[in-house]
Every structure is written in C-alpha cells, then in structure tokens.
Design brief:
By secondary structure, this protein is α/β, with parallel strands linked by helices. It has helices at about 20-35, 65-90, 95-100, 120-125, 140-145, 185-195, 210-215, 235-240, 260-265, 280, 295-305, 310-320, 320-360; strands at about 5, 40, 50-55, 90-95, 110-115, 135, 150, 170-175, 200, 225-230, 245-250, 270, 290. The strands form two sheets. It has a seven-stranded parallel sheet, with helices on both faces. It has a six-stranded parallel sheet with strand order 10-9-8-11-12-13, with helices on both faces.
Length: about 350
C-alpha cells in the first residue's frame, strides 16, 4: 500500500520551530518508511521530511499575512494534493477539516486525524461525511464525539531526536504558543511564587501580541523571567533538557500536547493543569504532576523530585513512534481490505446478474 499524507502548505515538515501537526506528519511518514510502507507527503518546498515530498507552493508562510489569504491557499493546496494523490496512492490521510469535503470527489478511502479541540459545528460537519475514517489523538477527544465513530491513536515521538539530560540546571521552562489558553501568564505566576527562574520559549502570533505585551513582557527581566524566542530541535533539546520541569498550566481542553512527551523524552517532568488529554499523558509522580491551582503547582515544583531516566522511560514506553505507526498501519490495512472486499462483492453481484439475464 502507498499512503498520501497531506499537511498544510504553511509550515515545513518537519517544522523548523512551531508546528505540532507537522511534527506528527513527519514522525508518521518516516516511521512508515522504516516499517516498509511507502508514503508521499504533500506540504511545501521547504520540507525536509525523509520521504517523497510533493508541493505546489515552494515556500513556507508562517505566520499568515491575513486569515483570508491563508484560507484560499489551504483550499488550493488541498484540492491539488488530493487530485494528485488519487492517481497513485491507495489511501489519503488528511489532517484538516476543509480537506474532508474533497473526499466526495475521489474514490480513494480517506483517513482524517482530528488535531483540534471539540467544536459542535465541526462535529456536525464530520457527521455529514461518514465515509471518511476519523481518528482522534486522545481518549478525551473521542469522548466529546459520541455520534462519530473514532479510532483513538495517541501521538508518538521519535525518541532518537531527543537527548536524556540527568543534570538539571535550576530553572523551569514554558514551551508553546504565547497565548491565554496556553496559560503563559500563569507559568510566570508559578515561577514567581516558587522563586525559581523561568525560561519562556514559543511563538508570539500577531493576534496575541497585545497579550504578550501586557501580561508577559512586563515580567521579563532576564533574571527570574526570560523570553528566549522560538526554538528549533537542537535548542529545544537544550531548553527542555536543562529544565527542572516543564510548566503546562493550560486553560482549555488540550487535544494532546506533543510538548509534554518532548519534555519527558529529555528526562524532564511535566507540571500541568488537567485540561483535555493531560491525564492520559502525565503519569502522577512518575512523569510529572497535575495541579489544580497556581499555588499548588508552585508548591509542587519546589518539593517534588523525579528521576530523569524514569521520566523518559515511561514516555518512551507509552508514546513511541513505532507504536503510533503500528496502529495507523493496522487501520490503513483494515480500510483497504474492507474496500477490496466490497469491490469483490460488487463484481460478483454484477457478474451473477449479467449471467442470469443472459440465460433468460
């Protein structure tokens, strides 16, 4: 079988900095390759994923100039990619809601991974396209779609790209979008209460510039609170590896949270609030701690102790790329076998009908 994996045209696969979905696609594509399953990634010309990459837009574009321009570019890219993939791939794996619509125009089976939090309008939209096979990225996400048949497949990480660091350097870190729902301002409060330096890394999107300027920047003194900008893989290893803990005080139902297992891969425990999939990823007192308030999180980072090798081992056991690839490969095969079986039954029925008409 040959699988088409369709990313957006905006961010390289794998991402140079921001891009959780793009990291997932890179891990899946390269994992499929190691498992002997060919795939084609549809992204942009700056991608360096180690499989065949096709594109119609040569350059990445992030952040977007305008929301409207992004929408049209996404639709154009997806339409082109699906038309191309339908010619020589057996199954098309999409990763955005707009791409679902195009499943009506090609005969190849579709898998769609839901990377976003629950939205009633989207759930209704998916229900109107029941021929697509949907996968969630957490059990929590699945529980929010009772009318949709979902296969839950947790994200997996290629742990070869992350270094275990056992000697921590006396600071906490926050890594993610600088946005209210991510709780960056609460991470600052935790660090101040605990009296432990905090390094903040992540993208400041234009829509959240005011949030950064008013809620974060006034606290940045490059001593207790430091903003280090966006980080690529090497800088991410250094940041996460040296930290005593990753702060994850989210204010929404996180669909998964790849950064959680990235931190664990470096032997760094996670201190989080419990929204969304967090309880599925953070094992209490093994790979981190779940708190209910800023004050509780501050006390926990001061008093709790974790063994970095144990943190990494737990995450590697639970969230390896090999496990994720096996689950997707199993799903792909089941879908293609079902399609072949249906086609065979259709041919037999047609042949039998024709034979009967001829005999009559």
């Amino acid at each position: 079988m040959r699988i088409a994996l369709i990313a957006s045209p905006f961010i390289a696969v794998p991402p140079r900095r921001y891009g959780g979905t793009e990291l997932f696609i890179a891990n899946l594509a390269e994992g499929l390759k190691r498992a002997g399953i060919p795939s084609v990634v549809y992204s942009n010309g700056e991608s360096t994923v180690d499989v065949e990459n096709r594109w119609c837009y040569p350059e990445a574009e992030w952040p977007l100039a305008t929301e409207g321009s992004g929408m049209f570019k996404e639709l154009d890219h997806v339409a082109w990619a699906i038309e191309d993939a339908a010619r020589d791939c057996d199954l098309i794996h999409i990763n955005s809601a707009p791409a679902v619509t195009y499943s009506r125009f090609v005969s190849r089976p579709f898998v769609c991974t839901l990377h976003h939090p629950y939205e009633p309008a989207l759930a209704h939209f998916y229900g109107r396209n029941p021929d697509v096979f949907y996968t969630s990225i957490s059990r929590h996400q699945t529980s929010l779609h009772p009318t949709l048949k979902l296969s839950t497949i947790h994200h997996g990480l290629d742990f070869r790209h992350y270094r275990l660091q056992t000697d921590k350097e006396g600071y906490l870190c926050f890594l993610g979008r600088i946005a209210p729902i991510k709780g960056t301002h609460l991470a600052v409060q935790v660090a101040k209460r605990a009296g432990i330096p905090l390094k903040i890394a992540g993208e400041i999107q234009p829509m959240y510039r005011s949030y950064y300027d008013t809620m974060i920047k006034p606290h940045v003194d490059d001593k207790l609170i430091e903003y280090v900008g966006e980080v690529g893989l090497e800088a991410k290893n250094q940041l996460l590896g040296g930290a005593m803990g990753l702060l994850f005080p989210i204010q929404w139902d996180e669909p998964f949270g790849l950064v959680l297992i990235e931190a664990m891969a470096c032997g760094t425990p996670v201190f989080a609030f419990s929204g969304g999939a967090v309880p599925e990823i953070v094992s209490e007192s093994v790979s981190g701690n779940i708190s209910n308030s800023v004050a509780e999180m501050a006390r926990n980072v001061q008093t709790m102790s974790f063994a970095p090798p144990m943190v990494r081992n737990w995450a590697e056991t639970m969230f390896s790329v090999e496990t994720m690839v096996d689950r997707y490969a199993e799903l792909y095969r089941a879908i293609l076998e079902r399609k072949a079986s249906r086609s065979h039954r259709t041919i037999r029925t047609t042949t039998t009908t024709t034979d009967t008409e001829t005999a009559a």
